[in-house]
Amino acid sequence: MTAGSLGSQGFAYQAIGAATLLALFVASLFVGVGELAIGSLASDPEALRLIMISRLPRTLAALLAGSALAIAGLVMQTLARNRFVEPSTAGTAQSAALGILVVTLVWPDASLGWKAAGAAVTALAGTSVFLMLAHRLPPTQPFLVPLFGLVYGGVIGAAAIFAAWHLDLLQYLEVWMTGEFSGILRGRYELLWVAGALVVLAWWTADRLTMLSLGRDVSIGLGLNYAAMLRLGLVIVSAITALTVVVVGTIPFVGLVAPNIVSRFAGENLRHTLPWVAGGGAALVLACDIMGRLIRFPYEVPVGTILGVVGAVLFLALLLGRNSND
Amino acid sequence: MIEIAGVSLALGGSRILDNVSLTVPKGGVTALVGPNGAGKSSLLSLIARLRPLQSGRITVDGLPVDTTPSRQLARIMAILRQDPGVASRLRVAELVGFGRFPHNRGRLTAKDREIIAASLEQFDLSDLALRFIDTLSGGQRQRALVAMTFCQGTDYILLDEPLNNLDMFHARNLMRTLRRIADEHGKTVLIVLHDINHAASYADRIVAMKDGAVIASGETGDIIRPDILESIFGFSMRVENIAGRLTVLHHA
Description:
The complex is a heterodimer of chains A (326) and B (252). In chain A, 72% of the residues lie in helices and 0% in strands. Chain A has 13 helices and no strands. Chain B is α/β, with parallel strands linked by helices and 252 residues long. Chain B is built from 10 helices and 12 strands. In chain B, the strands form 3 sheets. Chain B has a 6-stranded mixed beta sheet with strand order 6-7-8-3-9-10, sandwiched between helices. Chain B has a 4-stranded antiparallel beta sheet with strand order 2-1-4-5, covered by helices on one side. Chain B has a two-stranded antiparallel sheet with strand order 11-12. The N and C termini of chain B lie far apart (38 Å). The interface between A and B is medium-sized, with 27 and 40 residues. Chain A: One of its GO terms (molecular function) is transmembrane transporter activity.
């Protein structure tokens, strides 16, 4: 009766999706400057070392960051009740960068974990203010919310740049503002598992998130603790954004493109679509990271740059094709 | 029984409800009528705990709406506000299925599926069950929302102008369905209506509001009278008994 029970067809799609993700995962393990052939794994201990220290962490980081960012976008769209906002454009990522800057300033030796915690706090504050203001905008003008988000994110981003410039920390800021995986090694990405755990948490609350998207009155009428659910959503968005900004930097468009593509084909009953959104985000980031490694081989183009282009094209295609469904 | 005692509401400095007291007995259809801005929707929102109570007291089946856990209330009372602006891309069957959430917390049982299928059938939605709600017409979407409200299976059903967007066939179908569940299952329906003739035909009781106060309340036959209708709506209209039904000729 629902999308999840369309029978063999649904199963076929799931199989194709899983196979695609697996293929990208394997490809990501074997694409890079260091020579690595699949056959050498068994005989060559150096090859195994390369995989375990560099390639596998990098691939897992892309997988975790991609799925988590897609879910952060999805949850943020649910909170704002607007399909065109995401953390990297509406001030969450910028607030997180500002937070890391502050932590770096007052406590230069802080570990990655503490930086992430500081970033999460400012991201939470920045996103709360965004949502508070966005809820006041007239619902009859759906494009006002993302436009306001761009301005809001721009202002916070500019404040971060201004502060960094004054403190001579611009090159640090650059690292957090541009997402890339080339620096990921074992021991440098594990925080992202926390983001992965937040994806699982989002899935666990999928029904309640869907109800949130039905609006305040309907969800209260159905007995949902609306305010508590809003707060949980805010925490998920802020923590995921902070963790990814600290570990890999800002990766744009994933949170916009993955949920919108899935919504187009499968709707927004998150219990069924949330795994697709997470998988789609992971596949998108993995594919773009592999592309970044190949385009100027042996040099690398940061994944944030690749996604800036690919994501923008995909998003425009989505916008233009919006009225041709069903 | 819904008991409202001394309820006042002020929003942004203006008084929306002024010391309203009202008892809606258990069972039957009660219509809430009155001109625009009378405070009908606000009163409904307060009963359904969609708005915090500023003063006074409201209980449903003896449960105070401001302190009873929302989940518990959702099992005895369902509310459909006018134009809740549901924009999610859910399929009709999925949306209607969320009506069961207060009972099953998201895990559909065989009985839930039966109730969902019956609600879809009841509101002529079976053929649209797999359509996304953002592809429906306004009237079809309204029926889907009504079906979700029914699916909640509560003893108390609060509806705010549910006939909006509905064509004659589906408006009549909804009113007859309300009448039937009230008669056969003892449900209590509190419904805001603008068409006074729908109230005259289907309601057991009518509560009339004006300027934030209840100005008349009683059996339908006692309210559908020219003098009382004029005091509510501000113009005189004839009331005729046509084929055994009280009919208000308000178009003249």
